[in-house]
Amino acid sequence: MQNNRAFLYGDAVFETVKILDNKILFLEDHYFRLMSSMRILRMEIPMNFTMEFFENELLSKAKLENIEASARARITVYRKDGGYYLPENNNVNYEISVSKIEKSLYEIQKANFEIDLYKDFYISKQLISTLKTTNKLINITGSIYADENGLDSCILINEDKNVIEALNGNIFMLKDGVLSTPPISEGCLNGIMRKQILGLAKTLENIEVIEAVISPFDLQKADELFITNVIVGIQPITKYRKKEFQSNIANQLLTKLNTKIRLGVS
After folding, report:
1. pLDDT in tens, 181-216
2. What is 133-191 written as a DSSP string?
3. Taking Cα atoms as reference points, which of 31, 77, 33 lies closest to residue 50?
4. Whole-model pTM?
5. Rounded distance, CA 265 to CA 182, Å?
6. In Å, how far are 16, 93, 118, 214, 241 from 232, measured between CA atoms?
7. In the sheet that 153-158 helps form, which strands lie side by side, from edge to edge?
8. Are the CB atoms for 235 and 108 separated by under 8 Å?
């Protein structure tokens, strides 16, 4: 590890996928996001690193552990050893880790889920903030803050003091029939589940779906708040400060998400 650039400089990107019945959910989205991240960070993409290769490597690891029926898998791609801030070359290595997921379909993980703002550090409104890199110090310190204060998660904000995302996923807000989530330009993660929920929400009746700037003040006027990521799916937020929320739309979307997965549409 003493020469590993991921360890020394956080010179790495990663993807975490959900495997169900020996298939990677949302395979294309994960693959192309990883390729885009590598290009943005000037990493050399090996010629054999096709989507089929990406899929086979992850599934093979899950099969090796006999957990291909329901698992999470993470691939971390890092620049090869050599150099200091300036790499000696842009070639890459990668590591894959897998673990079993007990529940195959998505369901609400916690009936009560309380959050607050994390204001010690801010997310920058720039392209690099939207990538899944191994520099997650704000998420780490924010998670420690949440734990110390009896919270389930926290909301991250950017330098304009606007809401970006939660510590563990993208955030959605329902207010007066409008479902909104911060645009990527605000610095939030370009989430795979975020994209799925934006699409599914447009099939709901009497709901307008938009990407819009959200202020912390807006959260206290919301009817619903929920967090999305590929492993959990949808987690409703039940309390923010003194305000409590319902979860009707989150539950509807969860049903639609599981139906889409069972139909094999990715």
Report:
1. 999 999 999 999 999 999 999 999 999 999 999 999
2. BS--HHHHHHHHHHHHTT-SEEEEEETTS-EEEETTBEEEEEETTEEEE--GGGT----
3. 31
4. 0.94
5. 26
6. 12, 28, 21, 23, 23
7. 163-166, 153-158, 114-123, 239-240, 243-244
8. yes
